Amino acid sequence: MKDVLSTRFSTQPYWTAALPPFCDMARALPQQVDVIVVGAGYAGLSAARTLARSDRSVIAFDAGRIGEGASSRSAGSLGNVPKAKLAQINARYGEAVGREIYREARLAREFVEQMIRDENIDCDLQTRGRVIAAHSTKAFNKLKVALPTFQDTMGAVELLGADRQSEEIGSDAFHGVLVVSSSATLQPALLQHGLARAARAAGAHLAQECRVTDIKRTGGSFEVTAAGKTYRATDVIIATNAETGRDTAVMRSLRRRLTIVPAFALTTEEMDPEIVSRVLPKGRSFSDTFQILHYMAPAGERRLIMSGRAGRSDGDLATKARRLFAYFQSRFPALAETEVSHCWTGTFALTDDWIPHIGIEEGVHYMLGCCGVGVPMSTYLGHRIAQKILGQEARTSAYDRPLPAIPYWPANNLFLPAAVRAFALRDRLFR
Ligand SMILES: Cc1cc2nc3c(=O)[nH]c(=O)nc-3n(C[C@H](O)[C@H](O)[C@H](O)COP(=O)(O)OP(=O)(O)OC[C@H]3O[C@@H](n4cnc5c(N)ncnc54)[C@H](O)[C@@H]3O)c2cc1C
């Protein structure tokens, strides 16, 4: 049987393959600033931009190069809801908090769109909506029951039975679809580059390949060691999400409250745009109702991007690409002759309550636990931390609550593969 991998198969993210590396036009770093940001993904850059626009001196350090981390590896979905279900948040924190968490998720999406317009960031923002396809009759009935909640939380939605799903997807493997008009997609690496340019233009210093290895509190300020040199700052923000390591004591403590999950994405080789529109006739993004969901969206006119967990934890990226693509090829007949050009991996950070958090730990601000919705949430919450430092918050964010401990950590991380297998088994057995 013919291999689905193209002869040009690459394990570099498609988004950065043709993009020149971000150049920081290195300026001498000041030894003392108002704020030091650790991590230059969406969260760190967004915080740096807001602070610099208010004339605060700021350095954002990144251990790698801008564009190498999760922010340029994502699938590019720009949603307006958190990962946690409303009922879960209500049960844990009460209905008033649940309402606010969902309200701010919509604000996050609006914030990103406004910033893209304000900064003229050309990142292929498409607001065509999302199709959520039911993988079983039971899943479709659940969508039907939850329709009023979807209308409340997601805005305009429409439920189409299996007899009408061909209006939205080129597949008869599903049992009806929910159409969410508000969902959007974008080119994530272009967003990150645009955000970095905006932060730098506002006056922020961006220091790439400068790992922060120590943060010490000294009186009313901080001493931060990065790439062997010491800098002073009045405030420090940790914006390292799934890359939060054991570099400093405060990072070690925060890291224990995150579960780090690998995820995979692939793009197809270029194909006739006619095939893309047979797969997704209205150009909307697609996801299914499995616990471990599969995602697909157009990437330009001639390619599709797909993402998911790609099955068991074993195997290299070629194996992952074949597994992930097999899911789509078996359900979308128009993909029969399509090949895979790129497959890459990255990690995302889950919290115990499945919402991102901002807060203060030992005097250090943090924005962590994006739970796979970091394109809107990291960008927005980075901005919210900056507003908090600037004393510009009209009201406290609902995401500003201590990052909860994970029961049984570190066993939690050791049991992750088993937990994922349990979800996958549940997906197969309880359809
Ligand atoms: C395959 C995949 C698909 C995804 N798809 C989507 C999607 O479709 N939609 C969506 O909303 N989200 C998606 N996500 C999640 C999203 O990419 C992340 O939530 C988001 O990029 C997090 O941004 P961030 O700024 O918080 O963290 P990051 O972008 O991870 O930035 C953190 C940075 O901190 C740096 N760092 C770490 N330690 C140090 C240190 N000691 N010193 C200096 N720097 C340090 C790292 O180098 C890194 O650059 C996906 C993720 C993956 C992996």
Question: Can you describe this structure in just a few lines?
Answer:
The chain is an alpha/beta fold.
Describe this structure in words.
Helix 2 (42-53) packs parallel to helix 7 (188-201). By secondary structure, the chain is α/β, with parallel strands linked by helices. Helices cover 33% and strands 24% of the residues. The model has no long low-confidence stretch (mean pLDDT 93). The chain has a domain at 14-74 and 190-259 and 352-413: FAD/NAD(P)-binding domain, CATH 3.50.50. Strands 1-17-13-16-15-14-5-7-6 form a nine-stranded mixed sheet, sandwiched between helices. Strands 2, 3, 9, 10, 11, 12, 18 and 19 form an eight-stranded mixed sheet that branches. Strands 4-8 form a two-stranded antiparallel sheet. It binds flavin-adenine dinucleotide. Residues 38-44, 61-64, 69-71, 73-77, 211-212, 239-243, 245, 247, 263-265, 307, 346-348, 370, 372-376, 378 line the site of flavin-adenine dinucleotide (FAD).
In total, how many beta strands? 19
Proportion in β-strands: 15-25%
The end-to-end span amounts to: 30 Å
Summarize the biggest pleated sheet: 9 strands, mixed
What is the helix fraction of residues, given as a range?
Answer: 25-40%
Q: Which ions and ligands are bound to the chains?
A: flavin-adenine dinucleotide
Please identify which CATH superfamily of the domain at 14-74 and 190-259 and 352-413 we are dealing with: FAD/NAD(P)-binding domain
Mean pLDDT: 93
Q: Which second-level CATH architecture of the domain at 14-74 and 190-259 and 352-413 applies?
A: 3-Layer(bba) Sandwich
**Category from helices, strands and their pairing:** alpha/beta
Say what the CATH topology of the domain at 14-74 and 190-259 and 352-413 is.
FAD/NAD(P)-binding domain
Number of helices: 13
Spans of at least 5 consecutive residues with low confidence: none
CATH class of the domain at 14-74 and 190-259 and 352-413: Alpha Beta
Strand neighbour order, sheet with most strands: 1-17-13-16-15-14-5-7-6
Shape annotation: globular
